[in-house]
Amino acid sequence: MDTGLISSRYARALLLLVDETGGGEEVLAQTLTLSQALSSVPQLRRVLEGRGDLPVSGKLQLFESVLGGKKLAPELRQFITLVIRSGRVSLLRYIFSSFQRLWYRSRKIKLCHLTVTSPSRSLEEQLEEFVRKNTGCSVQMTTEVKPDIVGGFVFEVDDWLIDASVKTQLETIRRGFMEMNAAH
Question: What range defines the domain where residue 17 resides?
Answer without folding.
Answer: 3-105
